[in-house]
Amino acid sequence: MSKPPATPAVFGDLNPSPRLLMGPGPINADPRVLRAMSMPLLGQFDLEFTAYMNETMALLRQLYQTANRWSFLVDGTARAGIEALLVSLIEPGDRVLVPIFGRFGHLLHEIAARCGAEVTTMETEWGTVFEPDAVEAEVKRVRPKLVAIVHGDTSTTMTQPLEELGQICRRYDAILYVDATATLGGMDFPVDAWKVDAASAGLQKCLSGPPGSAPVTFNERVERLVLRRKHIESGIRPAGYVPPNGSRIGSNYFDLAMLMDYWGEARLNHHTEAASMLYAARECARIVLRDGLDETFARHTLASSALTAGLEAMGLKVFGDRRHKMANVTGVCIPEGIDGDKVRAAMLNDFGIEIGTSFGPLQGRIWRIGTMGYNCRKQNVLICLGALEAVLRRARLPAPAGAAVEAAYAVYTGPAASR
Ligand SMILES: Cc1ncc(COP(=O)(O)O)c(C=O)c1O
Question: Which of 79, 160, 213, 277 best tests ligand 1's pocket when mutated (most atoms within 8 Å of CB)?
Answer without folding.
Answer: 79
